[in-house]
Amino acid sequence: MTDLSAPGHGFPESEFETRIARAQRIMREHEFDALLLTTPHDIRYVTGFETQFWESPTRPWFLVVPADGKPIAVVPDIGAPQMGRTWIDDVRSWQSPRPEDDGTSLLASTLAQLPRRFGRMGAELGREMSLRMPVIQFLDLRDALPGLEITDGSPCIWEARRVKTPAEIARIHYICQIASEAYEGLVSLISEGEHLREVCRKLSMDILRRGADAVPFLPAIAGPDGVPQIVCGPLDKTLEAGDIMFIDTGSTYDGYFCDFDRHWAVGDISDEAKRANAAVWDATEAGIAAARPGATVEDVFDAQSKVIEAAGSLGNNVGRMGHGLGMQLTEPPSNMPGDTTLLEPGVVLTIEPGMEFAPGRMIVHEENVLITEDGCELLTKRAPREMWRID
Amino acid sequence: MTDLSAPGHGFPESEFETRIARAQRIMREHEFDALLLTTPHDIRYVTGFETQFWESPTRPWFLVVPADGKPIAVVPDIGAPQMGRTWIDDVRSWQSPRPEDDGTSLLASTLAQLPRRFGRMGAELGREMSLRMPVIQFLDLRDALPGLEITDGSPCIWEARRVKTPAEIARIHYICQIASEAYEGLVSLISEGEHLREVCRKLSMDILRRGADAVPFLPAIAGPDGVPQIVCGPLDKTLEAGDIMFIDTGSTYDGYFCDFDRHWAVGDISDEAKRANAAVWDATEAGIAAARPGATVEDVFDAQSKVIEAAGSLGNNVGRMGHGLGMQLTEPPSNMPGDTTLLEPGVVLTIEPGMEFAPGRMIVHEENVLITEDGCELLTKRAPREMWRID
């Protein structure tokens, strides 16, 4: 088990007061009278409301952040008792499912009562967001509120969530340590001939045993001397001598993700693959060195890209070299050309260089770092420069 | 381990041909020239494409089902290699993330080339669906295709998915059996004093050990002689004498869910709670008896409701008494007044009566059934009429 002690589940009310104060300051800059939130992560961010019931697509849930004061929840009856136990005082609910009006009129009347200064409300309409309600219902809501412009709130929401609080960082650090140690321990659990689905089953169980709450993302991919892609797996494949196995994980603790990968060589692999792996490890070092306050994420991309290019990369279908991390597996910003987001203390970032070193054979490394006052701090246990070996 | 043999992962091409033929027949009835799909379940339903990468909200993915012929995939580069290994021949991709045009123009040109007969395309805009792309991007797409009406395709999509194939049923049956046996075995893993998070950890690991692929939904809730709600948990609570513990699970195998719950008494509980539990068990029997071809889901609701009412129910914040089940934890139809969906062979339904038997104390049972030619078949192992006991 990890040396870090578990941060525990749930946050004091002061945590949410801090988050809302920050969000409302940013809302004023965006000239929003309110934010409308519908997604699991955004609703949990401001309320602490934790449920796995989001798996059911049947009922929409709503959370309104006004310009001043505490948020208002507008939720199905089934969720009202527990929402009433959060720090939210004003919980309104309706009997759902109700196909003819599944919360629309209750939400519209709630929004109509809010004070208006700018006449604008932000909603989850933009980049890296999907509204969790039927689009038709959203358009009906918009029509029901002619005096209120409902516009893209995603830049505002992402900005509010981008800088993590110490309590959030403690959770990300903890899950990073758990997954790091589970990765280290995997060599003793598996061997050549193991099916990739069994590899995933064993690793998932071990991550849970070590204290994670859930393992929503655990692709494992293997192929002769490299993998052709890194997002689909486990597929129908057993580990054979000469394979390189790639495993990535987004495991969670108290609502926060890690997101990093590791590689294993099954028996002997080629010198070409070893060289590529070392180059990508070096690119990670360069990315970590570049990740500091005042740098942009484009700078972090450039630092990694130089090393990869020098190593003879054929390209990289990932499209970037790292991204934000927190309540979701990937969050803005993106370490890529054109993203000039400035790094500041409290931002959690993945450093994720990758390259195709031969046609159909990729190596992608990943570590998670916290931007500090004068650089960055590794939240994961750094990968070894040479792959682990399985026999 | 369950007596059922594992159905295995993945489907032959003929399975997808069957699904698409059914979908295209229903599309013609709805007068659609195409369907636009963006969500994990809908895309997997027609392609077999399996990934956990949906956890990343950064990139939109698109799948177009034309009126005739095979679907066309329009996906980020990162997903193209594996999409090319499905039965789909036409895979188009773009380098993503690309904030200024994250697939919009490629998708618009793909749609513009399709033959038009009705001038209408269905998208995931309606009930029990959320579009998995930014709303702003959707509105841009709509503007880019002035001659094509993009309208609500959800009734068409849900109708296509409602009747399950034998291969789909085998998967739901298998995961139902795994979870049934894990529930039965739980009494030997836990005891009074156990924290609910530990209960969930142990049960999740056991469900995985028995062969499930994932356990995305496993709320455990406990309270003195009953629970006030059934969707949020585990919370910070240890099992104490006199508690009733409720656990529900949506575990998955090869992309298919089970969804059913069980109850445990910690030591002695009240006669009132025992009577309520027996009444809800009897209501489940009534629901199972009513679930047959030619009946509506409203009939299934009525059969359960009568028993619950006679037992003195104070109400039920769930809002219905069961629903469809398949690639998602809950699917249409809803067993509730006003839903007149006719049952037919191949439909998989949850039977889920519940009642508040005293203020703040609920009992909700659930089983999963398959509608057959002349009635229904239980896919879960029937709960005992008396709760299991933990000491």
Key descriptive features of the protein:
homodimer; 391 residues; alpha+beta; Creatine Amidinohydrolase, Chain A, domain 1; Creatine Amidinohydrolase; 2 domains; six-stranded mixed beta sheet; globular
How does the overall form of chain A come out from the CA principal axes? globular
Number of helices of chain A: 10
Q: State the CATH topology of the largest domain in chain A.
A: Creatine Amidinohydrolase
For the secondary structure, the number of strands of chain A is 19
Beta-strand percentage range of chain A: 15-25%
Describe the structure concisely for a colleague:
Chain A is α+β, with helices and mostly antiparallel strands and 391 residues long. Chain A contains 10 helices and 19 strands.
Task: Note the topology.
The structure is a homodimer of 391-residue chains.
Chain A: H1 13-29, E1 34-37, H2 40-47, E2 62-66, E3 72-76, H3 80-83, E4 90-94, H4 104-112, E5 120-123, H5 135-144, E6 149-152, H6 154-162, H7 166-185, H8 196-209, E7 214-217, E8 220-224, E9 243-253, E10 256-257, E11 260-266, H9 271-290, H10 297-310, E12 323-324, E13 331-334, E14 348-351, E15 354-358, E16 361-364, E17 367-371, E18 376-378, E19 388-390
Parallel strand pairs in A: 1-5, 3-4, 5-6, 11-19
Antiparallel strand pairs in A: 1-2, 2-3, 7-9, 8-9, 9-10, 9-11, 12-13, 14-17, 15-16, 17-18
Helix pairs in contact in A: 1-6, 4-5, 9-10
